[in-house]
Specification:
The structure is a single chain. 16% of the residues are buried. The protein has a two-stranded parallel sheet. The mean pLDDT is 81. The protein has 11 helices and 2 strands; from the N terminus they run ααααβαβαααααα. By secondary structure, the protein is mainly α.
Length: 263
């Protein structure tokens, strides 16, 4: 009889605890800075610009340009070859057993193993069936398949709620392509498409927000240097002078979180 996974009674509480509005600030700043270079955007008058060309890159380019993270050196080595069908349960068990022995040899309490979607499902069955043996064994779904499942979940929830229509009626994607994207396929297109949707929706939201703030005079306490520094940061993109320097964004995020987020 196949073992069953443990059920978390506080799953909703755990999900809610992951919500961090402050963590969204860099994304909001990215949208605002692209709005500065977009004609017709509703922004505080301090951010008014005659810019007619989009100098701020797309999401991945924006953050990769500013990133100064240097990963640690890792050593890649191959384990013993298992001459058998990869998806066979015995093969997966052997791979998990070898990984566990290796972790024990290195003095690690937990063995961490990353697998693709097909092998991940088999490995979880092995772990559920042998809970005592693999109690300290952590099985991870690879990043690509994890994001594909997440995109499919987004499509399941929002595809018929207007998300598919938004992608198709905007003329960005064809109907069949949009269906495949929201089912977890067409990965690169799906990531870009959902990022475009995020930017478009946040553009509308922020335009209404700034319009409301202007009518109610809600941004009077925001330091003027926030807006001037934001415009200066955009000029850095125009001159390609900010490569590898995340300090301007960090400073903007701190000021934005302090004064604008509470509004």
């Amino acid at each position: 009889m196949r073992g069953e996974p443990l059920r978390r009674q506080n799953a909703l509480e755990l999900l809610n605890s992951c919500t961090d509005p402050i963590g969204q600030t860099p994304d909001l700043l990215w949208v605002i800075r692209r709005m500065i270079c977009r004609e017709g955007s509703v922004l505080p008058h301090e951010l008014s610009s005659n810019c007619t060309e989009q100098f701020v890159p797309f999401w991945s380019g924006f953050f990769s340009t500013l990133a100064d993270f240097k990963p640690d050196r890792t050593i890649v080595a191959y384990g013993p070859i298992i001459d058998n069908k990869p998806s066979d349960m015995a093969t997966v068990f052997t791979a998990m057993h070898n990984c566990q022995n290796l972790a024990t040899t290195l003095g690690q309490k937990h063995a961490i193993q990353t697998m693709d979607q097909q092998l991940y499902a088999v490995a979880q069955q092995v772990k559920w069936s042998l809970k005592d043996k693999f109690a300290d064994h952590i099985i991870r779904l690879g990043g690509f398949h994890a994001l594909s499942c997440f995109i499919a979940a987004v499509g399941k929830l929002w595809s018929e709620a207007g998300l598919k229509d938004l992608l198709v009626d905007s003329g960005v994607y064809a109907g069949t392509t949009a269906e495949q994207m929201l089912s977890g396929k067409q990965f690169n297109r799906a990531v870009r498409g959902l990022t475009l949707v995020y930017e478009a929706l946040m553009h509308v939201l922020l335009s209404q927000f700034f319009q409301y703030c202007d009518l109610e005079d809600r941004l009077a306490d925001v330091p003027k240097h926030l807006w001037s520094r934001m415009k200066e940061a955009n000029l850095q993109f125009e001159s390609s002078a900010c490569s590898g320097n995340s300090q301007p964004v960090d400073n903007l995020a701190e000021t934005f979180t302090q004064y604008v987020t509470p509004v």
